[in-house]
Amino acid sequence: MFRNIPTITKNLLAINLLAFIATWVLQLRSIDLANLGGLHFFLASDFSPLQFITYMFLHANLSHIFFNMFALWMFGVVVENVWGSKKFLFYYISCGIGAGLMQELVQLVNFYFTIKSQAPDISFAELFTVGHQLSHQLNGWTTIGASGAVYAILLAFGMIFPNERIFIFPLPIPIKAKWFVCGYAAIELFSALGSSGDGVAHMAHLGGMLFGFLMIRYWNSYPDSNYNRSGGQEFFDNLKRNFERRHNKTQSQMHAERGGSKEDDMAYNARKRQNQEEIDAILDKIRKSGYDSLTKEEKQKLFDASRNT
What we know:
The chain is mainly α. The protein has helices spanning 7-27, 33-37, 51-54, 62-83, 85-118, 124-133, 147-160, 177-194, 202-221, 230-257, 262-289, 296-308; strands at 39-40, 142-143, 165-166, 175-176. The strands form two sheets. Strands 1-2 form a two-stranded antiparallel ribbon. The chain has a two-stranded antiparallel sheet with strand order 3-4.
């Protein structure tokens, strides 16, 4: 299964896992990798611009990395297959940086109101002087995790396949991807407004989705040779070619099982041509209208054809 994961998604999964193992091993030597590579508030003494990259490969605990990597695998495989490796990597890293920028902005606002509550007459310009004086205390504001970039991948899936139905536990019925994405965004927004001190960077999650939304809208409005939507066509064309290759591979085996009879072979080929034409028509329909446009019978036929190959 792992070898079928596209290159960038596979490497991102591996890097995150290795970074998590390194964090755990170095902790035994009293080295805090999360503090070194985590994204600090920009007024903190330990802040470094490089942390906008490193923070998204570090995680706090097992559940943190598990859910992020599960979502990256579940949705990243599809998005990378549609977009291609270069575009997918650019999108992932850019949205991760965008999530970090959003988190920095939120922390600046929080810092401003915290200082304002203690010194009502302080100006915004003076805030940076106070921040410099408190730079060591501000090192406690540290953000880690791939969630911002992963939420952007989730958004991309919802925008590419808005009507694709997916199962989400514990809901008993599948829901369309676009409603799933909207629901997640709403949950994060309400969590950001209604919770405090829960240790989750909700606004960073929303920041990743916001940057992803703006990027996809730009690509759709100004397509060029590098960033276009032809990957979706190529994805389903590859699916079609896989069906054809697998059917052709088994044709000689079926002929041998029938004892090489010329009459049986002709009947078999006619039936296979008819089935292939039906599969081709279903795949063309997916390209034009999406998977959700298929009837129940068409979905079953596509499933049966995939299983038999």
